Amino acid sequence: MNTTLWQKALDDGIAAGAFPCYAAAVGCGDELYFRSVGGLRAHFPSPLPLTDDALFDMASLTKLMGTTMAALRLIDRGTLRLTDTLGRYFDCCYGKESLTVFDLMTHTSGLPAHAPLWQMGISPEDAVRAILSPELTYPTGSKVVYSCMGFIVLGKLLERASGMTLDALVQREVLQPLGLHDTCYNPAPDRICVSTEKKAGSEHYICGHVHDENAHFLGGVSGNAGLFSTLRDTARFAAMLSRRGEGYLSRELFDLAITDHTTADPEDARGLGFDLYRSGTCPGGCRLSRGSYGHTGFTGTTLYVDRDSGVYVLLLSNRVHFGRSNDTFYPHRRGFFDTVMGDLKQ
């Protein structure tokens, strides 16, 4: 393996302004092939170097690392079923009582992709009602629409099913059993965090507080976003995914989670909380094998596991520090993944 090429792809991303900093790892199971950190965790208002223990805002990787894993653990234990409906857990569903956990986890529920809860003049306690009250945006199961709203509802449903707050549930079912000691919601003020975007209408850069507006509105703990993690912890999580959940989830359930449940949709392949690679180009490039599984985060975080080889490729960054319209990130992310997987498959 030519790790010099892998490193060059990361250095090229820094030089091109794709991201201010990166933390990357490549491995298979418990074997680590490559680990590298570089760049500045903040350019503004003053430059600060990235440190090895810095926390990245995982953004929508929270959906996989926190919410999905907590749901799968409850399913494995029999506390929750994929066929459980919203009507079982919520008193007022506005005609959506029959929507299931499966619908939410596969992004086929019909709930909207996004809604600005923080601008609606509601309290956080009214979030589920605000999401469920409008009409469905499409018939349930007819297509895939990636939905932060669906995962916010899923997070609230998990609280009802477990009798615990979502952060406590994730701590019990994910962080403790996997030994993810650095990962958390709402980092303590003394933790070193990677800076994200400039806050609208201010000169302040968000750092140590979740970037996602809805998750921030919900107190930093949400089904769609909110987790912060280090490279060490995220690589440990990736290694578990590479082993297909060995020692953490039953093999039968893990295999079901990475099965393509949305084959009728020509564009979007989804497992249970997992984004899957079917063909063409995905955030993890085009060198992954069919059925490879992982997820991304808006702040600039990406994790995919190659289904055939079990190799995981992990890239953490803060691309939104240069503005959320920083599209330079995407080709450089694909370039890093393609460089790694192309080299390993030669």
By CATH, the topology is Beta-lactamase
Computed over alpha carbons, the radius of gyration is: 19 Å
Number of domains: 1
- Determine the mean pLDDT: 97
Q: What general form does the structure show? A: globular
Give the termini distance in whole angstroms.
9 Å
Strand portion, in percent? Answer: 5-15%
DSSP summary: helix tally: 11
Protein structure class: alpha+beta
Give me the CATH architecture, please.
3-Layer(aba) Sandwich
Q: What's the order of the H and E elements?
A: HEEEEHHHHHHEHEHHEEEEEH
Give an overview in words.
- The chain is of the alpha+beta class and 346 residues long.
- The chain has eleven helices and eleven strands.
- An eight-stranded antiparallel beta sheet has the order 3-2-1-11-10-9-8-7, sandwiched between helices. Strands 4-6-5 form a three-stranded antiparallel beta sheet.
- A hairpin with a 4-residue loop joins strand 7 and strand 8.
- Helix 1 runs antiparallel to helix 11, helix 2 runs parallel beside helix 6 and helix 2 packs across helix 7.
- The mean pLDDT is 97.
Task: Considering the chains and any ligands shown, give keywords for the structure.
3-stranded antiparallel β-sheet; Beta-lactamase; about 350 residues; alpha+beta; single chain; about 15% strand; about 35% helix
Short description:
The protein has 346 residues and is an alpha+beta fold.
SSE inventory with pairings:
Blueprint: H1 3-15, E1 21-28, E2 31-42, E3 48-49, E4 56-57, H2 61-77, H3 86-89, H4 101-105, H5 127-132, H6 148-162, H7 166-178, E5 184-185, H8 213-217, E6 227-229, H9 231-242, H10 251-257, E7 269-270, E8 275-276, E9 293-297, E10 301-305, E11 311-317, H11 329-344
Antiparallel strand pairs: 1-2, 1-11, 2-3, 4-6, 5-6, 7-8, 8-9, 9-10, 10-11
